[in-house]
Amino acid sequence: MIPRQYLREHPDEVRAALDARGYDDVDVDALLEIDAEWRDLKAEGDGLRHERNEVSSKIGQLKQEGKEEEAQAAIEESQELKDEIERVEDRADELEAKLEQGLLELPQIPHEDVPVGEDEADNVERDRVGFDDLRDLPDEVTPHYDLGEELQIIDEARGAKTTGGGFYFLKGDGARLEHALIQFMLDVHREQGYHDIFPPVPVTSASMRGTGQLPKFNHDAYRIGGAEHDEYTDDDLWLCPTAEVPVTNMHREEIMLDDDLPLKYQAYTPNFRREAGEHGTETRGIVRVHQFNKVELVNFVRPDESYDRLWSLIDEACEVIDRLGLPYRTLDLCTGDLTFASARTVDIEVWAPGTDSEDGPEEGGRWLEVSSASNFEEFQARRAGIQYRPERHESAEYLHTLNASGTAVGRVMVAILEYYQNEDGTVDVPEALQPYMGGTEVIEGHDPVGESAVGAGEKE
Known about the structure:
By secondary structure, the protein is α+β, with helices and mostly antiparallel strands. It folds into two domains: about 5-105, Helix Hairpins (Orthogonal Bundle), CATH 1.10.287; about 120-445, BirA Bifunctional Protein, domain 2 (2-Layer Sandwich). It is built from twelve helices and 17 strands. The protein has helices spanning about 5-10, 10-20, 30-65, 70-105, 145-150, 155-160, 175-190, 205-210, 245-250, 305-325, 380-385, 410-420, and strands spanning about 125-130, 155, 170, 195, 200-205, 235-240, 255, 265-270, 290-300, 330, 345-350, 365-375, 385-390, 395-400, 400-410, 425-430, 440-445. The strands form five sheets. The chain has an eight-stranded mixed β-sheet. Strands 7-13-14 form a three-stranded mixed β-sheet, with no helix packed on it. Strand 13 (about 385-390) and strand 14 form a beta hairpin. Helix 7 crosses helix 12.
């Protein structure tokens, strides 16, 4: 969250940041007016309390001197002042709540080096890796959704039947590949010094506010219960949209010591978001779905080290893709494409050659984002109350938080199925994954399970 003092002292910078990010629904002047009235009321309340203390201190003396009428008048004046103080404090509390709500809806101020732009079309490519030595691909690469159906390893139809659109089953080697990727990623990051965390999947509204998912993006998340389930509405729980939420909030309202930092956590979780695709256009496959697995990397660092840590974090996420031998690129996100809480973000996008897109590389195919490495500076720490003491005797300060996917499992699987595809429709297992697949080198598919020869659900 942006400190109210920063808003008060740098309103033009806040306006410029909002404009660069494309936020035109935030009234900075209204927030400043609320803040000004709140400060006036706080000063008025302080004055009234001082006046009441002076009046109250005279009451006993007047009674001792036998001045009952004057003492009674002082008592009445003290009561009037008390009532006025309560009125002022009630109004101040009302304004405080409005101001806090307004501040919660202000996005992060972008770092000065973030490229200015309106949307993803203005992101800046940093580099490409792996395109100098591409493997031989089939003349026509089959998209993962068709290939998954042919190999009987992805079943979207049954996912839709049991749960709804945007959910799917993985079967046989598809399920094994998913498990292998998760364990492989965890092992890679463990080598990099990450501590393993296995967090709870449901999270509270306070946790969602702490990392910036609420109040801005409540419509994108899945809430447990609702008006139609009154007995559950008191749970105040959401399904985890990313492990960033529970892992960051592990330390909510805590003060760490300097010796504790930096902290590097990794966590695998299933994640749930209402991500139907760009305006509902991408309805096939497992790229834009409502449930997906991800290994998340969360860092807590000293403020003066956070940007060095960001570049290291990018390298740590890229190592997964490097070891899998997948071609990829990195992008500096522009101001208009930054997430709500991020001061600077670098995306990692793998190349999936099975489906062409307008922004795909010259080799065809398309880019799939598998990680966003972000520095939130003190934005999340301030919202969640996460601090540290530079020295034991010094006052606590807000630390900086960062995270990155390490990486998004389903999209990496898509890239593997398309990039490691062979002419005969089989898929080579990347060498780094073979030990996690029990030595399996090629995914050849299998016969349908639980289906008659004439098709699922049909009878002769």
